[in-house]
């Protein structure tokens, strides 16, 4: 297929449009790449500034909850023992000294 002068004339007129379009495409790629880089940098900064939970913290939370549960159970057992101890105390009569805890020995 041969090019005639009329074809060349049309091609030369359209060449500026083609150059401009190619330049925009190259600039768009570069702009998109810089936008993605900026977005990644902001994401990294956000991650650096935030406090991230770790598995160790979760384990510690679980241990704390278990200890609290164990302490609660022991308190319940202790309350039951105290109730039975109070019943025993009521049954036994204790003799106490009324001056006990009233005097302080400063000499020795």
Helix fraction? over 70%
- Count of strand segments: 0
Helix/strand order:
HH
Tell me the radius of gyration: 44 Å
Label the structural class: mainly alpha
Report the uncertain regions.
none
Alpha-carbon distance between the two ends: 126 Å
Mean pLDDT: 81
Please outline the major beta sheet.
none
Question: What is the 3D form?
Answer: rod-shaped
Beta-strand fraction estimate = under 5%
Count of helix runs: 2
Secondary structure elements and their pairing?
Elements: H1 5-49, H2 55-91
What does this structure look like?
With 108 residues, the protein is mostly helical. Among the domains are: 17-51; 53-89. Helix content is 76%, strand content 0%. The chain contains two helices and no strands. It has helices at residues 5-49, 55-91. The model has no long low-confidence stretch (mean pLDDT 81).
Brief synopsis:
This protein has helices at 5-49, 55-91. By secondary structure, the chain is an all-alpha fold.
Notable characteristics:
rod-shaped, about 110 residues, mainly alpha, 2 helices
